From TrEMBL:
CDD domains to which the protein is assigned, alphabetical: Adenylation_mRNA_capping
Protein name: mRNA capping enzyme
Cross-referenced InterPro entries: mRNA_cap_enzyme_adenylation (IPR001339), mRNA_Capping_Enz/RNA_Phosphat (IPR051029), NA-bd_OB-fold (IPR012340)
SUPFAM superfamilies: DNA ligase/mRNA capping enzyme, catalytic domain (SSF56091), Nucleic acid-binding proteins (SSF50249)
Catalytic activity: a 5'-end diphospho-ribonucleoside in mRNA + GTP + H(+) = a 5'-end (5'-triphosphoguanosine)-ribonucleoside in mRNA + diphosphate
MF annotations from Gene Ontology: ATP binding; mRNA guanylyltransferase activity
Organism field: Tetrahymena thermophila (strain SB210)
mRNA capping enzyme adenylation domain: residues covered: 56-186, 238-293
GO process terms (BP): 7-methylguanosine mRNA capping
Positions of the UniProt region annotated as Disordered: 475-502
Biased composition (Polar residues): 478-494
């Protein structure tokens, strides 16, 4: 890592946010490059195009499940598994002056200042940072960097904000992203438990996050999506977030997760995450991190663009009751194309989504609210279509492939052969489903500026086609084993060796 040196201001004094902001920006940018080079990604164009420092999982396919089973047969802890929390992804940066920041995937286009930093309060003891007997000022350092997600836990009628850690990149100022996964988790767990023990040693009570009623919890959800606290009635100084490390398990306990663990969670869950133990941290897409979601919950993050060129002209016909068929509108679905021969990322057409007129106008409105935006990012599911929407998809996809390619609002002429093959594949998919299935809106992704890239989107489509539900997943992971799910708590808690605070 580069040696960044700026003056550290003690808590209680005014922090020069400009200097601290620039320091963290520089650190994260250099750290991302260093980790990518360690993963043998040296092309400057590839490094520049990975804008978020966090690792991104791939979607579970049958071949992934087979690979996990084969490697498990060779080593007891080749992969470990945790529940996939339906929260909002954030990198947590803790500095040695006691300040804590969250930065998410909603990055800036400014290459020097990509990360939007939101200062928050977490349950940290001041003795982690300050030696009260030392009057000398220290240089600012990054103490910890965690990867995790913010969730709202529900207990009774109240909601509590929690940050769940699932990886550790920097520990007490030292880079640990290049060690195996269980040891990274051990470091995270040690930091959290050491912090809590300081409160106990001093006879102090651990700060408790304040409860939110359902009404305030809904307002808080905007913070989870955007990282902005402008709409909070509570000041950010009053917002205390608890921090803990997620529970992890050996692969053989997947049934326990399905039958016992996940049903008892205080927050939403949408699947499982499998992570290879013997792998270093990798920003961008990481084939060693595999997410499984129930087929009904598989989604793609598309850029939604309202097609205002009246592409359905000529197929709007009257039904037997005298009303026109098209009480719906067409949304173009775009993904990112990371062709390295191009100077910048570009969007490329992927598919259509048929929507109601009100939603169509909503997309236009949301697009207009973002300066220079072509559309708005949203999660979409592969769902059952009603008859009218199915008829519209049928009329579009029974057209000649070349005619379909000119229908999108922003046709992509850069790779016509690839686009033609993809449209032909989609035509076959719709035909096999008798035009009864198609894309449907799930939720906006206010925490993201970019859609999924084309490869990830195609992989998710393949995963949806394979229809790998929980039963099929277990049959592939453990074909010859019957597991009793009522076996107590098999949580794989890393063993914490005695450490000295550095």
């Amino acid at each position: 890592m580069g040696d960044f040196q700026i003056l550290l201001h003690r808590p209680g004094n005014e922090v020069i946010m400009g200097e601290e902001f620039n320091y963290i920006q520089g650190y994260l940018n250099e750290f991302k490059k260093e980790m990518l080079i360690e993963n043998k990604i040296t092309d400057p164009r590839k490094i520049e195009r990975i804008d978020f420092i966090g690792a991104q999982p791939v979607s579970m396919r049958n071949s992934h499940a087979d690979r996990i089973r084969e490697e498990r047969d060779q080593a007891d802890i080749s992969y470990i598994v945790c529940e996939k929390t339906d929260g909002v992804r954030y990198i947590m940066v803790i500095t040695n002056n006691g300040y804590c920041y969250l930065t998410g995937r909603n990055t800036s286009t400014d290459s020097e200042n990509k990360y939007k930093l939101n200062q928050i309060n977490v349950q940290l003891n001041k003795q982690l940072f300050i030696d009260e007997n030392d009057d000398e000022e220290e240089n600012l350092q990054i103490l910890e960097i965690f990867d995790g997600e913010l969730v709202l836990d529900k207990k009774g009628d109240n909601y509590y904000l929690k940050y769940l850690v699932f990886d550790c990149l920097v520990h007490f100022g030292e880079k640990v992203s290049n060690i195996d996964y269980l040891n990274r988790l051990t470091n995270a767990l040690y930091f959290v438990q050491y912090n809590n023990s300081l409160y106990e040693i001093n006879g102090e009570e651990l700060p408790k996050p304040q409860p939110f009623c359902e009404f305030k919890a809904k307002a808080l959800s905007q913070f989870l999506e955007t990282g902005e606290t402008d709409n909070f009635e509570d000041s950010e100084n009053d917002l205390v977030i608890s921090i803990c490390v997620k529970d992890f398990f050996k692969i053989k306990y997947c049934n326990y997760l399905f039958d016992n663990y996940i049903p008892s969670l205080p927050h939403h869950n949408d699947g499982l995450i499998f992570t290879k133990n013997n792998s270093i941290y990798k920003p961008g897409t990481d084939e060693n991190i595999i997410k499984w979601k129930p087929p009904s919950m598989n989604t793609i993050d598309f850029l939604l663009v309202a097609n205002q060129d009246n592409i359905l002209c000529g197929i709007d016909e009257k039904k037997s009751d005298g009303n026109y068929l098209l009480q719906s509108r067409v949304i173009d679905l775009y993904v990112m194309d990371n062709n390295l021969e191009r100077k910048n990322y570009e969007i490329t057409f992927f598919d259509f989504m048929i929507v109601d007129p009100d939603f169509f106008e909503e997309v236009i409105q949301k697009t207009s609210e973002k300066e220079g935006a072509k559309g708005v990012v949203a999660e979409c599911k592969w769902i059952d279509l009603d008859q009218d929407k199915g008829e519209i998809i049928k009329k579009i996809y029974t057209s000649d492939t070349d005619k379909i390619l000119v229908l999108p609002e922003f046709p992509d002429d850069s790779n016509q052969d690839d686009n033609r093959k993809w449209i032909a594949s989609q035509k076959q998919t719709y035909k096999e489903n008798k035009f009864s299935k198609g894309w449907g809106f799930d939720r906006y992704r206010l925490d993201k500026n970019f859609s999924n890239n084309k490869k990830i989107a195609k992989d998710i489509v393949s995963s949806i086609k394979e229809n790998l539900d929980s039963k099929a997943l277990m049959q592939r992971l453990m074909p010859n084993q019957h597991q009793n799910s009522n076996m107590g708590n098999p949580n794989l808690e890393p063993s914490i060796q005695k450490k000295q605070k550095r």
